[in-house]
Known about the structure:
heterodimer; A: alpha+beta; 2 domains; 29% helix; B: alpha+beta; 4 domains; five-stranded antiparallel sheet; elongated
Amino acid sequence: MSFSLATLPHRLYRLLGVERRRARRDRVVILGRNRIFILPSAQGLLYAALTFVMLLGAANYNNSLAFILTFVLIALGLIALLQTYRNLAGLRLSAGRCVPIFQGETAHFEVMVENPTRAARHALALQRGQDSPLVFHLDGTVTTASVSCTIIVPVQTERRGLLTLGLLRLHTRYPLGLFRAWVYVNLDFKCLVYPRPAAPSANTLRLTSGMRGRITDTDGNEDFIGHRAYRLGDSPRHVDWKAAARSDALLSKRFGSQQQAQCWLDWHDHEGDRETRLSRLCRAVLDAEASGMSYGLKLPTLVIAPAHGGAHRHQCLRALALFGIKS
Amino acid sequence: MSITSAPLTRRALAMLLLALTAAAAPHAFHLPLGIMLFVIVCGLWRWMVERAGWPLPGRTLRAVLTIAALSFVVLIFGTVFGRDAGTALLSVMLGLKLLELRNYRDAMLTLFLGCFLVVVMAFHSQEIPVAIALLTALLLLTMALIELHRDPSARGPMRNLQPAAMMLLAAAPLAALMFVLFPRLPAPLWGLPADAHGKTTGLSETMSPGAISQLATSDEIAFRVLFDGAPPAAEDLYWRGPVFWHTDGRNWSVGNHPGMTASPRMRPDFTPLGAPINYTVMLEPTGQSWLFALDLPYTAPAGGVQTEDMFLLTGQPVREPRHYAVTSYSAHRTPELSAAQRERALQLPDANPRTLALGRAWQEEGLAPETALQRALAHFHNEEFHYTLSPPMLSGADPVDSFMFETRAGFCEHYAAAFTVLMRAAGVPARIVTGYQGGERNPIGDHLIVRQRDAHAWAEVWLPAQGWTRVDPTAAVAPERIQHGSADLLARSGINARTRYDFGLRPLLDRVSASWDALNTRWNAWVLAYGPDAQSSLLARFGLRSWLAMTLALAGTIAIVLVLITLLTRSARQPRDPLVELHTRFRSRLARFGIMTEASEGPIALAHRVRQRNPELAANVDMFTALYVAMRYGKKNHTPSDLRHLRRTLANLGR
């Protein structure tokens, strides 16, 4: 950004860290007087100079109509100041969801912005660092307690572990662009970043306990193994409609994995530095999960008993992501 | 990067061009056609760039256009300074800026130029329709600014009208306060350019034959008068302006003498007799520094002074409409003439020998001043003198002689001049007074309208019994001019345009024009005439006598109004349900234990999660949740005691 007079106070604030200090780390932030900064924009300064010249002209010629028009323009500027501030005031920002992702992918932080007032908010821009701003607007409330929208802030990940969203800047120039109001928001918002999975290869997955065939009732999507009475929540795709047409009872088809193998994924089975090992273990977890077997994880500091399923997968990947990182 | 360099949307461009059209349109009445066309072509070009993909002019073409346009302005006006050239220059700049209008920054600059153009128009005209057009242009400019700063996704063609109108409405009280309280300057800050003000018609500092008759067909309003009581009779309505003492035989001038300056005593030099007449004059700009008042003004308004010649003067030429209150007495007695005054009141050049001879013959007869006066009037009355709006040219060195003895047809200034010369020749001190006579009543505003065609010249002679006495020789020739006013006279001369076509609508038209005049009167009196004098006299009533006091009052009242606007337009929150409020507190309480809640998570799901994560909290959380769910979603309406119970449960949480 080129240097201009308008950004000078802004830089000064930044230098003194005023904005940052005000931006305490919270899960929920309500924008009030103590957080909102407002300064004239470059255009606002030009406008001020222009109205001053008009005022000089009107005073010199003692022209009443010119006075009226100039004063209307000055008053419009004051009203714009009020409205620019109002466009931010009272908004509530809170940390929403952030689905864990793998290192190298883009994390999507869902920041929820709520408007508990009746006034619509226009042209709000949410910006993280030097990223391009995300522009949005919020209607005013009519009957509900608040109107909210979720802004997804994409952040490119570089390391595994917990990624902090960091300082966000919410700013606006609405309505006339003569002023810009901004607020720094430091949400207590972290995203879990799993290690980058290593490239698939044959030896990442080591089966240590052999195969133990077992029919389980996991309702997986593998092979058809029989019928059962329909339960609420069963996928309509699994309902045996032909059977239903023959009788008046709904039957769900049951599927199951024929085989449920168990394996251990062990830190010591892999070579290389820490990140390489974690990366390979990550790949192993993904492969094991995909193959439908039951798997456990052994790290130097913790052991996760064999199991299977999304929650287990997450537990293992989380352990890998946070391995060796102070919480 | 950000909006400041983003390209314009089509809608923003359309709105911008519309607003600029509104800002430039009023200038069409005074801008040279070529410049207006240039701006229009630039605007259309920019629109075709958007609609039809025409290219914007390149750097070279723009430079050529810039030089051509500037030369054109200089060619027409001979300068780039001054009001007219300045406006033309601004318009040309706007047109050129349109040709390089690409992004947000250009758009902002262009709109600001539009604002400037709006304000500049006020220096060309301050009429009510112009004011309405300019305020409309400001509304459109505000709409264009809003369009630039709002989400392009917003719907509805008039979506910017409501916020812009609300902004202007909120700005109105602030602007009104600034208008009343912003200190006005008694004198210009810098010299005004020669064309600072439009040409004004009216009386001038000299009087020559034909000077007043050229005003006789002008319907332009000179001033309006509002009487406190009943207005005086039409034949007493002599509105006094500059007084002429010095003549070269043809021209009369005010001369360079103390009579033109403020009376040193600041008191009128006469003893009032009879009842005072109180009234307010709403004077249109004259470009001269005298203030017209009914014969004879006794008080001087704020910013004005009494002169020895008993007319009112003000410090600065009247460039803007002006509003002042005066008290006059139609009956009066003036004191003895000083030797210098007598000498000036008898000054005569050698020209017009026949008129001088006639007067001197009367003096040699030993006629008393009163008798000489009567004889002169009888002369005009009995001889074949005509009162005409188109008098024959009086050339030659002795114009008064030609009028008196040859043409015998003239307008008021001919009669006043001839009479004064005759009186001086007869040894009676005399002088000429110019001003206006009569006026027509406006039934709507109940005020008197005095027009340029009411301009008049009459004489004053000094009689030992009562001092300066008004004598109107025109009345001896054309008494109907004095009794019925100039309109009647013009009607009979077939000159007045207003009588030509009326299609029987005359009463209606008269009424409409009377209402319009009444409206204009208020506009002039309350808005246009609000200058330094009106301001100081108004604000003195509130105890604001200095600039400092005014500025403080301005700052204070603006702060109060801003706070009021803030309070009145505060975007009201929906009243919150106490239950929802309690649940919010419940969630923030949970946050203390590291349990983060999502707005999307229902209370039961939340309780379930807490039970698994923090079993030690389960009892309280389950109780709270059960109560909350029952009260919020249950059929029964909850009572205050239920709420208290819920609150207590919340208080117990985390003890």
